[in-house]
Design goal:
With 412 residues, this protein is an alpha+beta fold. The protein has two domains: 66-259, no CATH class; 278-411, Protein Transport Mog1p, Chain A, CATH 3.40.1000. It is built from eleven helices and 15 strands. Mean pLDDT is 78; it is low at 1-91. Residues 70-93, 107-138 are annotated as: Disordered. The chain crosses the membrane at residues 43-63.
Length: 412
């Protein structure tokens, strides 16, 4: 499957957990520059709220679905491990591993139990330009079946993307039971996230993910579920089969580093000309908020910044994207054109991530120089949680004023 199509598949499969396909604002704003072209191409049909795919803390792995059900893998029966390409993958020229060996290595790291539906992909089988060694099995320790999978990839360990893979997301933009991140003695960075396949808990499927980035750029991502498959299967146990300690042992096993030994680290991620940093957007967003609002949380990731504010009447999430070169993206809702040529869209609509009573207000602007500034506000501090107030803490006029502020052009 071509690289861009694999990214598209990842967005579609992740959509159930993050944003429905009919959402309309900035999927691409929260994606890294390596996926910008695809996101722009599909902006008119596959888009989401400013916050939608910004929930990438643990991020890259969680949002891009590095592990969990894909085609193209080979093995005996069952559901294949799903592997979506992370940012800037590299062909492991000096790596040679078969699908069978990947499956064998995965099973060797598991505790006592039975496996079935073994699937895998190595560097020797049919694949696209960027093979991703991976394996998955259905594992049963006698307490119920659960899907367990692992994927290997190379990444620039100094990149922002690498950092996001092993960073716990803010609870303002993601719901989860537990997350921990640490630096190991050898300099590797590790994160373990306990969350759900669906943030709104429409099904009881739990998704536990362990991710490791080594100093040499090996990205090892493992995922497990308390069901035989990621989606569409009944849960068979309360929790996935491996404990957090066992998941950590799985991704830190030396066999994976040996498998990828000799693979080249990708080149540094290109900096998109004119694109402001998340930190600068965060700083300016907070500075733009009405003084009466108390900022109780804030952060930024991958071209996106957010703040959770409270005026004493309940928390409200506010998020912003600032993107250059977006002049070809259509706007939705009520669209007007200002005398200076700036197109402005204003929308007020129900929230779409499961929180009861949530409303979502958005102002989307595109200047003549093709700079796009989108700002959204919600009547909750977390889209997955119920509304905490009747309306967002900012009015549409205030959101419009922030979006049209000339300072965003200076940042870019």
């Amino acid at each position: 499957m071509p690289f861009e199509d694999r990214i598209g598949e990842a967005i579609r499969s992740t959509g159930d957990g993050f944003v429905p396909q009919d959402s309309r604002a900035l999927v691409d704003g929260a994606l890294n520059s390596g996926r910008r072209r695809l996101a722009r191409r599909r902006a008119a049909t596959v888009t989401g709220s400013v916050v939608a795919l910004a929930a990438v803390g643990l991020g890259g792995a969680w949002a891009s679905g590095l592990v969990g059900g894909s085609s193209g893998s080979r093995g005996s029966g069952g559901t294949a491990a799903s592997v979506a390409a992370p940012p800037k993958p590299t062909l492991p020229d000096k790596v040679s591993v078969s699908a069978e060996q990947m499956i064998k290595n995965l099973i060797a790291q598991l505790p006592q139990g039975r496996t079935s539906d073994e699937r895998g992909e190595g560097t020797d089988g049919p694949h696209d330009k960027y093979p991703t060694p991976n394996a998955s099995v259905v594992f049963d320790d006698g307490k119920g079946k659960g899907s367990v999978g692992i994927s290997l990839r190379m990444i620039d360990p100094t990149s922002q993307s690498a950092t996001e893979y092993v960073t716990c997301p803010s609870r303002a933009i993601a719901d989860y039971d537990h997350c921990t991140a640490e630096v190991l003695p050898d300099g590797s960075r590790f994160a373990f996230l306990q969350t759900y396949e669906y943030p709104d808990h429409r099904e009881d499927t739990k998704d536990w993910r362990a991710t490791l980035v080594t100093p040499k750029g090996v990205l090892i991502d493992a995922s497990e579920y308390n069901a035989p498959a990621e989606k569409g299967a009944q849960t068979t146990r309360v929790d996935p089969p491996l404990t957090g300690a066992q998941m950590k042992a799985l991704v830190t096993a030396e066999v994976w580093k040996k498998t990828m030994a000799g693979a080249k680290i990708p080149g540094r991620e290109p900096v998109r000309r004119g694109e402001p940093s998340g930190a600068s957007m965060q700083r300016e967003l907070v500075a733009s908020l009405p003084k009466a609002l108390k900022v109780v949380d804030q952060g930024n990731q991958g071209g996106y910044a957010f703040a959770v504010v409270d005026d004493g009447k309940g928390r409200s999430l506010v998020g912003i994207n600032v993107q250059p070169g977006m002049g070809d993206v259509p706007l939705h809702g009520s669209v007007t054109t200002l005398p200076n040529g700036t197109r402005v869209s204003e929308e007020q609509r129900p929230g779409e991530k499961g929180g009861a009573g949530v409303v979502w207000w958005t102002v989307d602007t595109i200047r003549q120089n093709e700079l796009r500034v989108v700002i959204s506000a919600f009547n909750t501090g977390n889209q997955n949680a119920p509304a905490t107030r009747a309306t967002p803490a900012l009015t549409m006029a205030q959101l419009k004023g922030i979006a049209l502020d000339p300072k965003w052009e200076k940042l870019s």
